[in-house]
Write a structure and sequence with these properties.
This protein is mostly beta strands and 194 residues long. 12% of the residues lie in helices and 31% in strands. It contains three helices and ten strands; from the N terminus they run H-E-E-E-E-E-E-E-H-H-E-E-E.
């Protein structure tokens, strides 16, 4: 079942947990691709009395982060290292900038199309890592602000699963946020970023 708006309205942490095991779907003219979400990270809010200084919206509303302050269930896509996109899902209530970064997934449908998009990549290198996930699912900056409730890119409910919790990756620049245990992975899955 496709997630309605209300499913995105929880906190970033709650939404990040619930996304693990759900399916990310992208329907395009060349075909439908589906990943089982295996790794997420929550951004925004507070943990043990400290603000999430690892979040893009930590310093407030900007042109880049505008979508995070709107209604939940929209795509926040941005470029890293000048060449790779990262895909986040806005959550929480309007005016509160929470989001979930999708870090990895396991192909469920459209694997041939995913392989075409990823060239020589094999195994978990197809879709493990936020940039690889975006390449595999044809997610680019043109999808910034896309409505995940009504558009061709969306989330479907999955099956219940066990989740492991750890610190988020690659945010050493954050004073507090680098210690937050806001990374959620599908227990026992090989389809997680290293």
């Amino acid at each position: 079942m496709r997630w309605p708006r209300a499913d995105y309205a929880g906190s970033a942490v709650d939404t990040a947990r619930r996304l693990v095991g759900a399916h990310l779907v992208h329907e395009m003219p060349e075909g439908r691709t589906v990943l089982r979400i295996t790794e997420t990270e929550a951004y925004g809010g507070w943990y043990e009395g400290r603000p999430d200084d690892g979040a893009h919206a930590y310093r407030g509303r900007t042109a880049r982060t505008e979508v995070l302050f709107g209604e939940p269930g929209h795509a926040y896509v941005y470029l890293i290292y000048g060449m790779y996109c990262c895909f986040n899902i806005s959550c929480d209530g309007e005016g509160t900038a929470g989001c979930v970064l999708l870090r990895a997934g396991e192909p469920v449908e459209g694997e041939e199309l995913i392989r075409q998009r990823r060239g020589k990549a094999k195994g978990t290198a197809l879709t493990c890592g936020p940039g690889r996930l975006c390449l595999a699912m044809a997610i680019d900056r043109s999808l910034y602000g896309a409505d995940l409730v009504t558009g061709p890119l969306y989330v479907e409910s999955g099956t219940p699963c066990e989740i492991e919790i750890s610190r988020r990756k690659h945010i050493d620049y954050a004073t507090y946020g680098r210690e937050f245990p806001w990374r959620f992975t599908l227990k026992g899955s090989l389809w997680v970023s290293r």
